[in-house]
Specification:
The complex is a heterodimer.
Chain A lengths: L3 E4 L2 E4 L5 E7 L5 E8 L3 E10 L2 E4 L6 E3 L9 E3 L8 E8 L9 E2 L3 E5 L1
Parallel strand pairs in A: 2-11
Antiparallel strand pairs in A: 1-3, 3-8, 4-5, 4-9, 5-6, 7-8, 9-10, 9-11
Chain B lengths: L3 E2 L5 E4 L4 E7 L7 E6 L6 E6 L3 E5 L2 E6 L4 E6 L8 E8 L7 E3 L3 E6 L1
Chain lengths: 114, 112
């Protein structure tokens, strides 16, 4: 099993550009999450989804959008990139909410906005 | 007060010693507690989960939970240089959807 796969691994965007960070999981997990991690700031939840067609905002949703058309895929969209969105983005999944197995994380996308 | 607090470190220990990592949390009704290990440039990896007061051991790792004091810790026995990483404490908040809230992590350095 591949687990949680994120693409791309690295990306440089210019201010105002748009992009989609891809996330797919092959574990048939219901719950999926997007986090961003800034140096010394820990992981902050951007959006989450409890199943196909259902999404909700986390702590820092401004400037981002998500969709969940299938169980496997949970893309994160940046519409107008800003320097404040320079960060490392992690997608994660879990079977159902918080479980004894915690979250499975993807390898991350390092995004720089210049 | 931060929801989950950790000392950023670095915590330096010699090889073979016991490393003790600490975490406090603010929500008295938190139910689930996790420790993740994150190597530099990599994604977090779950190493321990604990739900009840007391100790839980898994190999060289022991998680300790004291809900009355709102305190969770991770002990790493016989520390190895390969244990050098940042350790993230994560706690559920009882706010409907039980999301995980992460601390900022403690950097551990194990010297040979």
């Amino acid at each position: 099993n591949a687990g949680v796969t994120q693409t791309p691994k690295f990306r440089i965007l210019k201010i105002g550009q748009s992009m989609t960070l891809q996330c797919t999981q092959d574990m048939n997990h219901n719950y999926m999450y997007w986090y961003r991690q800034d140096p010394g700031m820990g992981l902050k939840l951007i959006y989450y989804s409890v199943g196909a067609g259902i999404t909700d905002k986390g702590e820092v949703p401004n400037g981002y959008n998500v969709s969940r058309s299938t169980t496997e895929d949970f893309p994160l969209r940046l519409e107008l990139a800003a320097p404040s969105q320079t960060s490392v983005y992690f997608c994660a999944s879990s079977v159902q909410g918080v479980t004894p197995y915690g979250y499975t994380f993807g390898s991350g996308t390092r995004l720089t906005v210049v | 007060q931060k929801e989950v607090e950790q000392n950023s470190g670095p915590l330096s220990v010699p090889e073979g010693a016991i490393a003790s990592l600490n975490c406090t949390y603010s929500d008295r009704v938190s139910q689930s507690f996790f420790w993740y290990r994150q190597y530099s440039g990599k994604s977090p990896e779950l190493i321990m989960s604990i739900y009840s007061n007391g100790d839980k051991e898994d190999g060289r790792f022991t998680a300790q939970l004291n809900k009355a004091s709102q305190y969770v810790s991770l002990l790493i026995r016989d520390s190895q240089p390969s244990d050098s990483a940042t350790y993230l404490c994560a706690v559920t908040l009882n706010t409907g959807f039980q999301k995980l809230v992460f601390g900022t992590g403690t950097r551990l350095l194990v010297s040979p």
